[in-house]
Amino acid sequence: MMKHILVVDDNLMMRKLIRNLFHNDNYIIEEATNGVEGLEIVKQHPVDLIITDIIMPKMEGIEMIMNLRRDFPDIKIIAISGGKPYYLYMAKKLGIDGIFTKPLNHDAFLKAVKKVIQFPGKEQIQAE
Asked: How much is the pTM?
């Protein structure tokens, strides 16, 4: 069964990069440019994983994660950020499944995503 991944990032190049990392695998990749769009997509249909940036216009990642945790407590979330490490620390405190700093380590990121999506436990993944 194909896994459904939602990438929420205001940076088009970052969304393209993540989409390209999964191009050979059987994933459905959807994109949103901010937390508001991301929440709308999740409300319309289930996704297996959300990969979200933290700092975005309209609604940033922390607020979106808080909404997701309230309304969809079991959804898998990985946060990425090129900003201050404090933001990722905050995201981790919300009980998400992994955090990564930008620029992404492609191999580690890909492995982490596959691990999170294939084994639905509550094991947090930390960027190297």
From this structure: 0.90
Residue by residue, DSSP assigns 11-26 as: -HHHHHHHHHHTTTSS
Tell me the pLDDT band of 128, cut-offs 50, 70 and 90: very low
Picking from 119, 104, 101, 108, the residue whose alpha carbon sits closest to that of residue 49 is 119
Q: Mind listing the domains of the chain with CATH numbers?
A: 3-122 (3.40.50.2300)
- Separation of alpha carbons 38 and 121, rounded Å: 23
Rounded to whole angstroms, the Cα distance separating 56 from 47 reads 21
In this predicted model, what pLDDT tens digit does every residue of 36-82 receive, in sequence order? Answer: 999 999 999 999 999 999 999 999 999 999 999 999 999 999 999 98
Can you tell me the distance from the alpha carbon of 56 to that of 86, in angstroms, rounded to the nearest whole number? 16
CA torsion through residues 20, 21, 25, 28, sign: negative
